[in-house]
Amino acid sequence: MNQADLTQHKLKPALAECSLHRQRLHHAWAEAVAFECMQPNSSGEHSMPSEAEVRVLDQLVFRFGQLQDALGHRVLPTVLKITGDWRDDETFVDKLNRAEKLKLLPSAQEWQMLRELRNQSAHEYPDQPEVLMQNLQRLHGAVPALERGLDAVMAFVRGRFGV
User: Fold this and answer.
1) Is the pLDDT of residue 52 over 90?
2) Who's near 97: CB < 8 A, 6+ residues apart?
3) 13-47, pLDDT tens digit by residue?
4) Which residues, other chains included, contact 134 with Cβ-Cβ below 8 Å and sequence gap of 6+?
5) I need a labelling partner for 88 at 20 to 30 A (CA). Which of 55, 82, 114, 129 fits?
6) CA 73, CA 50: separation in Å to the nearest integer?
7) pLDDT for 57-89, tens place per residue?
8) d(CA 57, CA 29)
9) Which residues 6+ apart lie within 8 Å of 80 measured at CB?
10) Rounded to 5, what percent of the chain is helix, strand, coil?
């Protein structure tokens, strides 16, 4: 595919998907700020979320993962292909480092941390509720970093391709 085809058929739909995930992620993030279960009590422990809170927290985890996946597996590879910076024989870490050098991502290291956090948060820990709550708190705290990553990608794409 040429640059115009990649932009039209891959990049634009992936960016639209990212925007939708971000919007829904941000709403869940903003709502979860007020949850008692997200605040440690005087002993440093967390209460368990109510069923209504679980639905919002599930949305938070789901949309975080979806946004992180869409950016990492659809947008970044497409942009690197359009710019001619994609190398099939490289590791994903090398591609992240290249994306950081291009100013496509603010930080390759931060991106790897977000990916690890996404993976940890996707697992249920029914016999370890404290681990679950710690992961949820970390994920909740990382939402602004993921949003900054999307902002950097969008600014790069607008500046380079006018999309």
Assistant:
1) yes
2) 108
3) 999 999 999 999 999 999 999 998 888 775 667 78
4) 46
5) 114
6) 34
7) 999 999 999 999 999 999 999 999 999 999 999
8) 8
9) 86, 95, 98, 99, 104
10) 75, 0, 25
What pLDDT score does 162 carry? 85
Which residues neighbour 145 within 8 Å (Cβ) at sequence distance 6 or greater? 110, 114
Tens of pLDDT, residues 97-108: 999 999 999 999
Q: What is the C-alpha separation between 112 and 93, in angstroms, rounded?
A: 8
Is 2.60.40 the CATH classification of the domain at 3-161? no
pTM of the model: 0.92
**The CA-based dihedral angle spanning residues 123, 78, 19, 144, taken in that order and rounded to the nearest 10 degrees:** 60
Structure tokens at 31: 């709502």
CA-based nearest residue to 105, from 159, 154, 160:
154
Which two tokens mark 127? Answer: 């016999």
> What residues contact 32, with CB distance under 8 A and at least 6 apart?
38, 53, 56, 57, 60, 140
